[in-house]
């Protein structure tokens, strides 16, 4: 065994010299190969917007739609001569639903690509982490699709604005309507993680205020495929309405099983946020229930909407825009408009200018006044409340019949209740 | 066998020069300083895992748990206890290290697939605790609301909050300290005993070596090292989230170790560098970047079982 030890050291020293050269060459090549391709593709003069979204993983579909909307906004602004005389450039990065990766991508966009603005992310946790990087670097950041209350609540920041709703806005938008329509005994089916818990808590507050009763709540782990046990329990509790708070694929599985068991024939089904992406993933008989959309494409008589739909159809294989398209579109348009209005890219000035900034008709694409509230930087967008429908009358993508459109500031809690205190840089 | 011996001084000098000068050359080749810090942190984590995998010969598939515990320990300390970076790192290391050592006592008797399964199980326990304990950990939203603090060294204060280069060197110094401890341990009789257990456990046992104790000790040390890396990761991101504890990260760390070469001391660092850089660049070009990492991994396992560093070192007797 002692011989082996000495042989080991001799061998190591012999190979070592060669390894230096080879390692050096390999590391050099590995580092050089890809970045230059990128550098060539990314020139220096344009106004740069960094967009981080989970293009891979569970939220890939909404994330890609957000990017598509953002790209449309960029090409429209560029067609009109750019912003401040500079063309816009959108740099898209994949956060892969992982906070560490998202933060890394944010640093990359800021440190290497020197972006002027940041947009993202569908995942609330990633969005909040990016917001922190953006604040450290004094960059204007618009959260396009993460719903957690704290982004424009207790963790609000001077440089962070949000386009999509908060969970409290969503629950406020539907509570009174569901109570009036279905009755006072509610049963929840809630995804068992932070988003689900906060959404349920917000609804419970409203239910209590209205004098209703909660017959129970089924906490379902994320990624549940078999909801039968929860559904049987929910039916046995004999509620007036079953409130589904699960999202994405879970929503699809749960609704399919509700229809299979015929539960929807005994108890009405409702919920808060519903997305066109989810309804499209359902068989037609399972497109049921009362929901809230954050934005919906079929609004007769809304100016500039037909052009938007037509433009998205061109790049979306003929399909209509979803709320996610509009989020991405609105995020970029907001930055372009406010920079053009203020004639600067200075984040502090732009962030001040966005306080109570109202979106023009060609961007808001909905009836009510839509503006960024000064107190918490939350966009006051309308809630579209209505029924899922099996088949559209005129269009296969018309899977939702809107009953009413509620203005955002009617459902948003007052700024004082959000817990947001903005600290502006000196 | 030689790979567990010393690295040639010239190689060492080259490695340290590359690391020391990283802030200068990273920008020239399209990188950025935070990328360098990420390579160091994940490299340290992969090297910690490899302390167990490559040198003791037992595969833990739940090491992200200790990494994540280090991250949460560090974050929670900064958030609730004291605004001190060194104290937070120490607390994170202790949290992961102590829990790892305690549970390691239960795991050390298992071998092979059972060892790997039990480590996954324990890892997922901590994942779900972080995922569900909303009040303390922030649940799925992650732990936020803390930030690394400037270092106070005597009368001087080093700005590692806003100054990315200073933070890189802080990480590099931490990295160097842990790597030095690891190298010293591996060169000690204790380290040689670990290699002996890896090569032939039965013979080691017949020689009177307390095998279980050594495996436990290696496991506990590995947990301490990786918790420290986790703490650095929390400081790097100013954030900790449940994915830091998830077994998919454990898998990534194993991939880094195998990719770089798990029988060599520096292999995992190379593996981490390749993994992180690939992720960073290829994911900007295509959403299918994982396929490239997967393809590289498959190629390495099939054709270069000694990892990338094994290839660079040329053919040698197995």
Question: Mind explaining what this structure looks like?
Answer:
The complex is a heterodimer of chains A (426) and B (318). With 426 residues, chain A is an alpha/beta fold. The longest helix of chain A has 40 residues, at 2-41. Helix content of chain A is 47%, strand content 15%. Chain A is globular and about 65 Å long. In chain A, helix 5 (167-182) crosses helix 6 (194-210). Chain B is globular and about 55 Å long. In chain B, a hairpin with a 2-residue loop joins strand 1 and strand 2 (156-158). The mean pLDDT of chain B is 85. By secondary structure, chain B is mainly alpha-helical. A two-stranded antiparallel ribbon of chain B has the order 1-2. Chain B starts with 8 loop residues before the first helix and ends in a 6-residue tail after the last helix. Chain B is built from 15 helices and two strands.
Q: Could you say how many structural domains of chain B there are in total?
A: 1
Biggest interface and which pair forms it?
A-B, 62 and 65 residues
CATH topology of the largest domain in chain A: Rossmann fold
Mean pLDDT of chain B: 85
Overall pLDDT score of chain A: 87
Across the major sheet of chain B, the strand order is 1-2
Which architecture of chain B would the CATH scheme give at its second level? Answer: Orthogonal Bundle
Helix content bin of chain B: over 70%
For this structure, what is the CATH class of chain B?
Mainly Alpha
Task: Give the arrangement of secondary structure elements.
The complex is a heterodimer of chains A (426) and B (318).
Chain A lengths: L1 H40 L5 E7 L6 H20 L8 E7 L4 H13 L5 E3 L4 H13 L3 E4 L16 E3 L4 H16 L2 E7 L2 H17 L2 E8 L7 H9 L4 E4 L3 H14 L1 H4 L2 E5 L2 H5 L9 E4 L11 H11 L7 H20 L4 H8 L6 H4 L18 E6 L11 E7 L1 H4 L3 H4 L8
Parallel strand pairs in A: 1-2, 1-3, 3-4, 4-5, 6-7, 6-8, 8-9, 9-10
Antiparallel strand pairs in A: 10-11, 11-12
Helix pairs in contact in A: 2-12, 3-4, 5-6, 12-13
Chain B lengths: L8 H12 L1 H5 L6 H21 L10 H18 L3 H23 L4 H21 L1 H4 L13 E3 L2 E3 L5 H24 L1 H11 L1 H6 L4 H27 L9 H14 L6 H19 L3 H15 L3 H6 L6
Antiparallel strand pairs in B: 1-2
